[in-house]
Amino acid sequence: MNLVTGGTGLVGCHILIDLLNQNQQVRALKRENSNLEMVNAVFKHYGLADYFSKIEWVEGDVLDIPSLESAIKGINKVYHSAAIVSFNKKHFKKMYEVNVNGTANMVNVCLENNIEKIGHISSIAAIGRSKTNQYNEQNKWKNDKKNSYYAITKYGAEREIWRGEQEGLSSVVVNPGIIIGPSSWHRSSTTLFKQVSKGLPRYTPGINGFVDVRDVSKAIIQLMDSSISAERFILVGENLNYKEVFEKIAHALNKPAPTKKATKWMMQIAWRLEKINAFIKGKSPSITKETALTACEKYFYDSSKIKQMIAYEFIAIDKAISNTAKFL
User: Fold this and answer.
1) How would you label 12-31 residue by residue, b for 16+ Cβ within 10 Å and e otherwise?
2) Strands 117-121, 56-59: pairing kind
3) Total-model pTM
């Protein structure tokens, strides 16, 4: 029996789909009053509406230890994808509680119940800094003012997983790039599709790593089913510049692609203006200092480790974008 945390999220939902496709039993943790409509819609998107009823949903929270103890009864493996994603400083405290303390709680409950293995969905944000902009699993974390609040919490979460490993809990960690996959307009990387759909006039000069959500799900399941333990794996299908990505999204949505380049100084002005605008309107800013910086930097991620260790082949980002556009 498998327990999936964050089952209503982009990655967790696809893990549920792939486990059910393998005729495995699944239990999914959800918060009280969670909306399951998006999960159901994604199942229907893949023609698997009948599978939705096979999920055993249990109410709980990674910050509520008794609910975790109840949810983990009869479980062999745990897929931990529950997390908050935000680059807003105002959300740091809550994000730290859920991403770091929540992972610590999950690890402790796994240890107490002799769970066979835990698979943790981390992020390329938790990979250490590189002077050459070339990144692999060996990069060491360094405290740096350029580290986003989100990155700090994801690295902290990984430390809890490694602590669990030292205490006897078998584990694997995956570090996906920007994940492309079917979800709500307002969640995850699908916001990129929303921006292009509304008419995005400019593209940023940065380069980043992208991955299909189906790769994240399939890779973590293969790693969980293997004898591999105490390892982390970067999951990046392609390193692409944002101009290419926006052009591909625009083509898939039949919308015009951005043609003008947004320079670094433009982005520096943009995040400051957005901060003021968000404060006046009492909402979260759509651009922050961290996202403005990232959008202009060039990051190259090496996924050769997982290709070598389990012969994994990634889906082309064109197909990831097409799959997402069809859902929307």
Assistant:
1) bbbbbbbbbeeebebbbbbe
2) unpaired
3) 0.94
Contact 40, 52 (CB under 8 A): yes
Angle at 121 between CA 300 and CA 328, to 5 degrees: 80
CB 141 within 8 A of CB 201: no
Q: Which amino acid is at 287?
A: I
Bridge-partner residues for 139, per DSSP?
none
pLDDT of residue 145: 79
Q: What is the pLDDT of residues 36-90, one digit of tens each?
A: 999 999 999 999 999 999 999 999 999 999 999 999 999 999 999 999 998 888 8
Neighbours of 137 (CB within 10 A): 18
Alpha-helix runs per DSSP H in the chain: 10-21, 37-45, 65-71, 92-96, 102-112, 149-166, 190-198, 213-224, 242-253, 264-281, 289-294, 304-310, 317-327
Domain residue ranges in the chain: 2-182+210-236+301-314
Contacts of 35-41 with C-beta under 8 Å, sequence gap 24+, read: 35/8, 36/8, 38/8, 38/13, 38/183, 38/184, 38/187, 39/7, 39/8, 39/13, 41/182, 41/327
**pLDDT (tens digit, 9 = 90+) per residue, 156-197?**
999 999 999 999 999 999 999 999 999 887 777 888 898 899
The answer to whether 300 touches 208, Cβ cutoff 8 Å, is: no
Lowest mean pLDDT among 18-27, 198-207, 238-247: 198-207
Angstrom distance (rounded) from CA 101 to CA 94: 10
What's the rounded Cα separation, in Å, for the pair 61 and 55?
Answer: 17
Q: Report the phi/psi class of residue 23: left, alpha or beta, with left for phi > 0 and alpha for psi in -120 to 50.
A: left
| Domain 2-182+210-236+301-314 class, CATH top level | alpha beta
pLDDT of residue 130: 83
Helix (H, G, I), strand (E, B) or coil at 175: strand
pLDDT tens digits, residue range 264-323? 778 777 768 777 776 777 777 777 787 788 888 999 999 999 999 999 999 999 999 999
Q: Report the length, in residues, of the chain.
A: 328
